[in-house]
């Protein structure tokens, strides 16, 4: 266990001086160090003396090692000053681990702002922002990667040709698109929420925005949800910018390659970085644009403390540095809508005539008219309209996409007699079937349940309560025996498919891109998305439907989308009209009326009942704060703290952070998870 030094509330901690000469200490500079200690009551910079032997190497942004609380701890040198406000004696830096300046002043300010926004510590944010050091990569000369050695006078040249007429053609479909690119080219910081057209080549549009920013002499950070999207964006950037003018960052690269690419950006060899959520902190020089694609995707939410969202990190970065910002998606989140309504960003969308020309024809199954034509449509997984649409598309030589929200074969079964959910007798987990010949087994503990008997009626028969993607593929294979069936999901994700007749069954987020577009897209089991106990259920359902539907061909080219849902539902209506903006405005208005994010600020506290009660009792919550709950969650409980306005969010985060600091100073045995504006509330 780490034992912290005694501290005073109004002045920095007194740290004992080493045996080095006190006479030399008066001539040396002071370094302010962010020590890697994720304790809330020690979340500040500490002052150390810089020995003359490492004066040149100990520069802001480098990694250092210091003695802290009797132990050697790593940290980052934030800045150097001539004197310290600390009234006691200071000790010296123990070691400069590396003179490489991996933490820029801009990223350090951003990390501090993100920590304050999410009631976290700077140490936790810096772990997300700066990858672990790889000494061998760091020691390699720049020429080993085909680069020139960096100089302080100038960064290596990057091709910065103005965007050509061809490069701006795609943005010309949006009335405000050309003006957005011009502002980037002139070195300004425009802020936009972009609603991409159906079938839009969004990776190329983002690459064109990065090219316009480079033409203005500034760099870009582009963030996408997953590796498949990053591969598409990587190809587009290489095509638009040319080779060796950008890097991509993602966790799957491995520590050596990831650090090598990070250093290329940090050293100024490239000024365009694309990646997944961690790339939001990429050290790009002269940042002029931050962009995020599909900001509603839950992959943008960091699962590690302090749980920041990539969209909020990028918007904070744009605000602090005066850079342009682009929030882009086919759908629109309530947070993006709030940016427009508050005046912080401008809407970049196409006119309705262009949307109708690009969109596929969308038809629902399950409304009153459809039930009159096909009485079995209400209960069938594949109503006759969906079956005919798929048959016609296959006959026309085009592939068909079927989106199924559940993976697996039969992920949930029920009693064949009384329809009660089948549960494991050992852990009460749900039973599932993993294949057509498999014995029912528990989805939680994995125990087989061959002798399962319903505790309510005693029947032993089972029926499918929820059908997964693999079972759907089997059913379609029997319905279309001469057509190949391919699956894309957890067992294997397809990136692309050929423009040949085929049935492609995919779970949300795993839909492959078809050459020339799909002839038909079928959206099945929509109830699984709409009935989720989640504040964002409707928004998330529409986002996933639009993600699949945008892969279809335009209606003029025969593209069709069939959604198995009642056409009177609000999210379904938004899909039928292809109008995510109006739906987002309605969602935001409802949340504003109910007092939920993003209209209000909210914090989730999860821990044992005693620990949560202690934290709330210590916190000096802002006026108007409201406590919701607590409610039990497994072996813990969750309490929501809500403030009525976003302006009070900073005060809420500060109060929770200070209370957490008091608990950590007291060495509280039980931790409390603090999440500000969590992605999921229930």
Blueprint of the fold:
Layout: H1 22-25, E1 30-35, E2 46-49, E3 63-68, E4 71-81, E5 95-98, H2 105-117, H3 122-129, H4 135-139, H5 165-168, H6 177-185, E6 191-195, H7 202-215, E7 219-223, H8 227-241, E8 247-249, H9 255-266, E9 272-275, E10 287-293, H10 310-321, E11 324-329, H11 334-341, E12 346-348, H12 352-358, E13 361-365, H13 368-373, H14 384-395, E14 400-403, E15 412-415, E16 431-432, E17 441-442, E18 462-466, H15 469-479, E19 485-488, E20 496-497, E21 503-506, E22 513-514, E23 520-523, H16 527-530, H17 537-549, E24 560-564, H18 570-577, H19 580-594, E25 601-607, H20 609-618, E26 626-633, E27 636-643, H21 649-665, E28 673-676
Parallel strand pairs: 6-11, 6-12, 7-9, 7-10, 8-9, 10-11, 13-24, 14-21, 14-23, 19-21, 20-22, 23-24
Antiparallel strand pairs: 1-2, 1-4, 3-4, 3-5, 15-18, 16-17, 25-27, 25-28, 26-27
Helix pairs in contact: 2-3, 2-10, 6-7, 7-8, 11-19, 17-18, 20-21
């Amino acid at each position: 266990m780490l034992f912290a030094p005694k501290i005073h509330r109004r002045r920095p901690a007194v740290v004992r001086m080493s045996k080095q000469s006190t006479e030399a200490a008066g001539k040396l500079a002071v370094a302010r160090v962010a020590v890697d200690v994720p304790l809330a009551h020690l979340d500040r910079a500490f002052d150390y003396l810089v020995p003359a032997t490492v004066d040149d190497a100990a520069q802001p942004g480098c990694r250092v090692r210091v003695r802290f609380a009797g132990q050697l701890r790593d940290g980052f040198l934030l800045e150097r000053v001539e004197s310290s406000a600390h009234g006691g004696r200071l000790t010296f830096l123990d070691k400069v681990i590396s003179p490489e300046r991996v933490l820029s002043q801009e990223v350090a300010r951003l990390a501090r702002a993100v920590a304050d926004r999410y009631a976290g510590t700077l140490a936790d944010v810096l772990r997300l922002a700066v990858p672990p050091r790889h000494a061998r990569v760091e020691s390699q000369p720049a020429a080993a990667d085909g680069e020139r050695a960096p100089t302080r006078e100038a960064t290596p040249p990057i091709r910065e040709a103005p965007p050509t007429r061809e490069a701006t053609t795609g943005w010309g479909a949006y009335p405000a698109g050309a003006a957005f690119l011009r502002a980037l080219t002139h070195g300004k910081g425009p802020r936009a929420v972009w609603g991409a057209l159906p079938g839009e080549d969004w990776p190329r549009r983002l690459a064109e925005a990065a090219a316009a920013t480079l033409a203005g002499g500034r760099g870009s950070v582009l963030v996408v949800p997953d590796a498949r999207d990053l591969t598409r964006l990587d190809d587009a950037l290489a095509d638009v910018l040319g080779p060796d003018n950008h890097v991509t960052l993602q966790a799957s690269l491995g520590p050596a390659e990831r650090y090598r690419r990070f250093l290329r950006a940090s050293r100024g060899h490239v000024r365009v970085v694309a990646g997944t959520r961690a790339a939001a902190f990429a050290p790009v020089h002269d940042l002029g644009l931050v962009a995020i694609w599909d900001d509603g995707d839950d992959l943008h939410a960091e699962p590690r403390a302090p749980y920041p969202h990539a969209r909020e990190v990028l918007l904070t970065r744009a605000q602090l540095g005066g850079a342009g910002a682009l929030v882009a998606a086919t759908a629109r989140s309530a947070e993006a809508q709030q940016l427009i309504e508050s005046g912080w960003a401008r809407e970049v969308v196409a006119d309705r005539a262009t949307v109708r020309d690009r969109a596929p024809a969308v038809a629902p199954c399950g409304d009153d008219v459809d039930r009159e034509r096909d009485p079995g449509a209400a209960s069938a997984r594949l109503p006759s309209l969906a079956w005919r649409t798929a048959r016609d598309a296959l006959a026309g030589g085009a592939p068909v996409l079927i989106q199924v929200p559940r993976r697996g074969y039969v992920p949930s079964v029920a009693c064949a007699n009384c329809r009660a959910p089948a549960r494991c007798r050992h852990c009460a987990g749900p039973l599932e079937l993993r294949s057509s010949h498999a014995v029912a087994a528990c989805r939680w503990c994995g125990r087989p349940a061959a002798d399962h008997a319903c505790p309510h009626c005693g029947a032993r028969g089972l029926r499918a309560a929820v059908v997964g993607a693999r079972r759907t593929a089997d059913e379609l294979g029997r319905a279309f025996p001469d057509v190949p069936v391919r699956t894309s999901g957890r067992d294997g994700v397809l990136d692309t498919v050929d423009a040949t007749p085929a049935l492609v069954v995919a779970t949300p987020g795993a839909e492959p891109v078809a050459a020339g577009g799909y002839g038909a897209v079928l959206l099945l089991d929509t109830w699984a998305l709409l009935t989720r106990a989640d504040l964002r259920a409707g928004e998330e359902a529409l986002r996933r439907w639009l993600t699949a539907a945008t892969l279809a061909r335009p209606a003029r080219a025969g593209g069709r989308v069939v959604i198995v849902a009642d056409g009177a539902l609000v999210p379904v209506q938004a899909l039928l009209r292809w109008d995510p903006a109006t739906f987002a405005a309605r969602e935001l208005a409802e949340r504003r009326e109910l007092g939920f994010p993003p209209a209000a600020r909210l914090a989730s506290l999860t821990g044992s009942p005693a620990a949560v009660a202690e934290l709330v009792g210590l916190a000096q919550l802002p006026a108007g704060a409201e406590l919701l709950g607590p409610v039990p969650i497994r072996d813990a409980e969750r309490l929501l703290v809500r403030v009525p306005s976003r302006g009070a969010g900073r005060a809420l985060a500060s109060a929770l952070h200070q209370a957490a600091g008091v608990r950590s100073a007291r060495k509280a045995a039980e931790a409390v998870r603090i999440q500000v504006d969590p992605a999921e509330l229930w």
